[in-house]
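Aim 2, interim progress: modelling of the zinc ion-bound target.
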Amino acid sequence: MSHKIRGLHHITAVSGPPQENFDFYRNRLGLRFTKKTINFDDPFTYHLYYGNHNATPGSAITFFPWQHVPAGSPNTGEATVVQYTIPNGSLPYWKERFNKFGIETGEPFTRFGFTHLPLNDNDGMKIELVEDNLGAKVDTKGYGGVSDEHAIRGFFGTTLSLADTGRTAEILKEFGWKEEGSEAGDLRFSSNPDNHLGRFVDLRPEPNLDGQFGRGSIHHIAFRVPDDEAQAYWRETILKMGFEITPVKNRDYFRSIYFREPGGVLFEIATDIPGFDVDEPLDELGQNLKLPSWYEKHRDEIEKRLPELNVK
Ligand code: ZN
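Predicted structure of the complex, ligand included:
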């Protein structure tokens, strides 16, 4: 049975204060705020989700606002760039928008035939908006004043900064990803998810970054599988490859397994099911604090201790 892994599911990072994170991702990047919940392992910390209008797999960026950790900087053995899909021809719109809000952007550059606009988020995390007409077919809406036409569709891909790309390349090949070749040092792998989102992973040889993990650092990247059966197959396969992998964890909106790939990046494999509308209707996503059932009895205390966050 072929069980290729197709596309990224979500990317999880550490941020500073939750309101600043919301103001950047919803009001500047124009993503939809899709879930206000807590870190299931640390219930007095938010877990904030942003995605496209329908919160589809391949669009979710999630944050733990750990305000007490120091500012991070890109490090070897981490995912260091989040690449987002915008439609072809949308780049000037975004340049002008960032300019209007005083957000600095780098020079656009071309990689593997796609045009990238680089910038940093408010915590210094590297973002690139990439013109891509395939991913642009995804239906979405712009938030925070972004036009529907130019809105971010979801992920294009991510970049992993590695001491040695070879062993990570082996894992991606095992996942069924295709080696596309190298450009400007980056070794690109592609997959073919149904919605074309999150279909690229670039391996970048950067052995001496000497950064530190903190606010603005990516904690892990998650790959997509359709269901529990496919996930069980991959858990077995990864165990057989000699890696340690966690038991299945119920994240309410998906089920997850985690392992550290040989380059040092924490990889997760998450199910598409049940999805973000499992505990609130699609048109109300993100409006109310959602807790896993086992924390409901502590709701009052949790609400009292979480920092203020205005999501209107
Ligand atoms: Zn995750």
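The two ends are 47 Å apart (CA to CA). Helices lie at 18-25, 91-100, 165-174, 228-240, 299-305.
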